[in-house]
Each structure stands twice: as C-alpha cells, then as structure tokens.
Amino acid sequence: MENTGSYLGNIVERTFSLQAYENSDWIGSWTLFIFAWTIAWAPFVGLFIAKISRGRTIREFVLGVMLVPTFFTFFWFSVFGDTALHMIMVDGYNSLISEVQNNQAIALFKLLERLPFTEFVSSLTILLIITFL
Q1: Contact 96, 87 (CB under 8 A)
Q2: What confidence tens digit (pLDDT) does each residue in 21-78 have?
Q3: Of 73, 71, 59, which Cα lies nearest the Cα of 132?
Q4: How far is residue 92's CA from residue 86's CA, in Å, rounded to a whole number?
Q5: pLDDT (0 to 100) of residue 46
Q6: Which residue pairs from 71-79 have beta carbons closer than 8 angstroms and sit at least 24 positions apart in sequence?
Q7: CA–CA distance, 99 with 107 (Å, rounded to integer)
Q8: How far apart are CA 133 and CA 121, in angstroms?
Q9: Contact 102, 129 (CB under 8 A)
Q10: What pTM was estimated for this model as a whole?
Q11: Same domain as 68, residue 119
Q12: Do residue 80 and residue 61 come from a single domain?
C-alpha cells in the first residue's frame, strides 16, 4: 500500500519530470520508443475499438476503452509490485532480485510460485500475455 501511496503522492512531479539537469538520454529514448510504439499500434487498435464499439454510447465507450483497462492495469501492478517488494524487503526473498536481473519473464513466475493459487494465477498471466502481446 505504501508504494501506491507514494506513486499517487508524486504523480504530478513524475509526470512532468524531464530530467533536464541530469546527464541522461533516458527521456529522449523513452519518448522515441513510446512514439514508435503508438504509431505502430494505433491503426490496429483504432480499427478494433471502432469495430467493437459500434452502437455503443460515448459513456460506454469511454468506460470500456479508457477506464476499465486503466484500473485493471493499476490494480495488477499495485498488487504484484507491492507483493514483490514485500517479499524482498520483509520476507528476505533476495533471490528474486537476481531472477529479475537474469530473466524478467522467469522472475514473474518465480514470484507467482510463492503465492496461493499458483496454477490459476500463472494460467491467467499466460492468457493475458498471449492476449495482449
């Protein structure tokens, strides 16, 4: 919960941070990556959303396309991000750090192995990865 509070408390500062006084080209390459990603996927996503939104109201469209995915993503990263940090900082599961550095995909499933309902959550994760990649 602390990470979520920290995120919400610093969202404005982090949103407008350009790292202008730091010797880093991260912001430039990140922006270029996001622009390229958006341009590459915009036609496909636009056509898909237009096709499935036929006959819906603007309210239903905004709710289904903007708010539901945003809240789901926020929930997903809050729960699993906080869980990973708790496992490392409180439970002493420091091997998760080396797993993340070696292979992030494997690290996700190493994290899920330590949670209840491992098979269900891992299956859901694989389904979501297949669906959205």
Answers
A1: yes
A2: 777 776 667 777 778 888 898 899 889 888 888 888 989 988 888 898 889 888 988 8
A3: 73
A4: 9
A5: 87
A6: 78/3, 78/4
A7: 5
A8: 18
A9: no
A10: 0.62
A11: yes
A12: yes
